[in-house]
């Protein structure tokens, strides 16, 4: 039986709510910032940590270390969601931001293969694994925290968490582009590539400081007071909420594909497939990202007024219709046409992306919300996000059609459209308590 929360955070001061949202979002920013920085400097890292006579083999090993973080995410989701649903959201979020910041810093300070031998790639891979475990618990916990503090403006406030993903990708890409353009190849390999990773030190300290000063969410405190906290939230979540889990994972399929195809794979696609220079490819990608970021808060706020389902349906249908024409535009030799194509994709993707976190948070009761969010977010990202560049490249090579990645995007949008139609409208209801 569905019971709604007996407590509401509506009485919280606006400053307290903003502080909670900022603290929750900062870990998300560090996660995706590190992701894009590692990708941009993969070729440098390959030479320094995986030396080989075969450049392709070195790069492959570098991306294998990168993939380890994705394989570790479900493990992190299980560990942290158990703690978060049984003991509260605050402590797991503090631990996760420490682990993310420390592992990012370790990568930035790590001696190369020439200095410490085989220990260098082993430590690098270990740091990536720790990051993956922390991120697996970070995303769902941060979303739970925001949703349970946000009252009836859950769409708007969780939308800022999605905004930080785009902001992190933009910031990491911009810093990498500036460093690549301003430093010589020798300076970049010697010390320049380390600078973006070391930014994780102050960001991690700020995030930890903010999170340690937060109170537990009112919804979890109410569940604890009413003895509704379950002993084994992961098993309870899977057994009792399997339908919500399927819908949640279906909703996340589109963002899992689009974030990585549209904003991470695009610079490589524009450079290697279309033939633009590195600067043109990165500049076009940053322009598309900036446009997408501007749209997120607007659609998120709109969802609190008109509901989540209309925006999810509109966004997924738009992707099905516009993805292929937009990818044809990306194949243009003119940068302005490429930017227009990226903006068109961003416009189609933004309505669904903006409300995705609110929708998934509202599917689950407080007792297993951390678990439901963590599994719904991490499983599709592990299966589809981490493999998206590989799938896109495979589609192009097999079909000999440079616009073939559009079919991957369209397939994901259809899955999410079905999930959106199956989901109930929750924008104007209280969060479920038990």
TrEMBL record:
<feature type="transmembrane region" description="Helical">
    <location>
        <begin position="191"/>
        <end position="210"/>
    </location>
</feature>
<dbReference type="InterPro" id="IPR005828">
    <property type="entry name" value="MFS_sugar_transport-like"/>
</dbReference>
<feature type="transmembrane region" description="Helical">
    <location>
        <begin position="245"/>
        <end position="263"/>
    </location>
</feature>
<feature type="domain" description="Major facilitator superfamily (MFS) profile">
    <location>
        <begin position="20"/>
        <end position="430"/>
    </location>
</feature>
<feature type="transmembrane region" description="Helical">
    <location>
        <begin position="336"/>
        <end position="361"/>
    </location>
</feature>
<feature type="transmembrane region" description="Helical">
    <location>
        <begin position="157"/>
        <end position="179"/>
    </location>
</feature>
<dbReference type="InterPro" id="IPR051084">
    <property type="entry name" value="H+-coupled_symporters"/>
</dbReference>
<feature type="transmembrane region" description="Helical">
    <location>
        <begin position="373"/>
        <end position="396"/>
    </location>
</feature>
<keyword id="KW-0813">Transport</keyword>
<dbReference type="Pfam" id="PF07690">
    <property type="entry name" value="MFS_1"/>
</dbReference>
<keyword id="KW-0769">Symport</keyword>
<keyword id="KW-1003">Cell membrane</keyword>
<feature type="transmembrane region" description="Helical">
    <location>
        <begin position="402"/>
        <end position="423"/>
    </location>
</feature>
<protein>
    <submittedName>
        <fullName>Glycine betaine/L-proline transporter ProP</fullName>
    </submittedName>
</protein>
<feature type="transmembrane region" description="Helical">
    <location>
        <begin position="92"/>
        <end position="110"/>
    </location>
</feature>
<dbReference type="InterPro" id="IPR020846">
    <property type="entry name" value="MFS_dom"/>
</dbReference>
<keyword id="KW-1133">Transmembrane helix</keyword>
<dbReference type="Pfam" id="PF00083">
    <property type="entry name" value="Sugar_tr"/>
</dbReference>
<feature type="transmembrane region" description="Helical">
    <location>
        <begin position="32"/>
        <end position="50"/>
    </location>
</feature>
<feature type="transmembrane region" description="Helical">
    <location>
        <begin position="312"/>
        <end position="330"/>
    </location>
</feature>
<feature type="transmembrane region" description="Helical">
    <location>
        <begin position="56"/>
        <end position="80"/>
    </location>
</feature>
<keyword id="KW-0472">Membrane</keyword>
<feature type="transmembrane region" description="Helical">
    <location>
        <begin position="116"/>
        <end position="136"/>
    </location>
</feature>
<keyword id="KW-0812">Transmembrane</keyword>
<dbReference type="InterPro" id="IPR036259">
    <property type="entry name" value="MFS_trans_sf"/>
</dbReference>
<feature type="transmembrane region" description="Helical">
    <location>
        <begin position="283"/>
        <end position="300"/>
    </location>
</feature>
<dbReference type="InterPro" id="IPR011701">
    <property type="entry name" value="MFS"/>
</dbReference>
